[in-house]
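Lay summary. Proteins are chains of building blocks that fold into shapes, and those shapes determine what they do. In this project we predict the shape from the chain. Here is one chain we studied, written as its sequence of building blocks.
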Amino acid sequence: MTQQSAEERARIERAQAALSACGVGGAVSSIERLKGQSHISWRVERIDATPLVVRIEPKRGILPPYDLPSEARLLTLLDRAGIPVPKTLGSCADLGPSEDAGRGCIVVDWVDGDVLIKHRLEADVARAYCETLRQIHTLDWRAAGLDWLPLPPESGPAIHEREQIASRLKAFGVFDLPHIRRLREALDGRAPSATEPMLVHCDVNFGNFILQPGQRDEAPRIAAVLDWEQAHLGDPLLDWGRLAAEDLLGNLDLSDAARQVMRSSLESYERSEEDLHYWTLHQLYKHSSATGALLVLRGWDADQIAEMYQEPTERLLSC
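And here is the predicted shape, written in a compact code that computers can read:
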């Protein structure tokens, strides 16, 4: 048996304390840090028990504020409503006294499957993705008990979201970076009219969708949608704008058939090209707020980040 280092033992003790605070049993045998920029996330192996995921709020993250106990509540209600999400096993509003004091925590089941971002998307998987996205957007959120989520203000979700993004940019001191200012100014006077509020996930990148491949003649399906910390009631085109922005940034790998499936699904929402264009620009702006925060938190190169947005911004503004 390989002897654990002092650092490994400390991480295990930290995970064990988080499980205990959330009321989840089992002796931790090992942990693995998971990818992601928002929370501290671990896959936790337990002795004689199934693996699970522990997520802890960061001291300072790229898209604050964070509220994992509220996310736990949301996940529980979504699970009851038939939305594919990991099952919530426990949560805690404050992990003190420990090095994580003042931070919230959530413990959920580990979901086996493939992360969509690892593969080129073909038509059948794109169809499963779009059906799940539609299921989220068309959920009767009142009947599902989600009426505690705040409704957009009278100014509409677009203006409200911009105010939140601006606050984050100012908090990190990157509000007036040239590439960010250009995106912000391009949004002025272009906000779409408010629509009937729907449940919006707000982080629908392919890395948050776990695929369960179909067996024999069965179609693939989405086993779980992850990372609901930004979910709210708003305009579903915000999610579609995120996909379009990711595509502009070169982060989507889609076959021609998959693109057609996604195009047809978007058309079923019966919204204008102008509305989608706005939300794509909006999501590129929001994306720039996240990378702007990482300039500060991770010391990323500002010129390289600005260059990343140059061509996508030009393409959007030329439309």
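What the prediction tells us: The longest strand covers residues 49-56.
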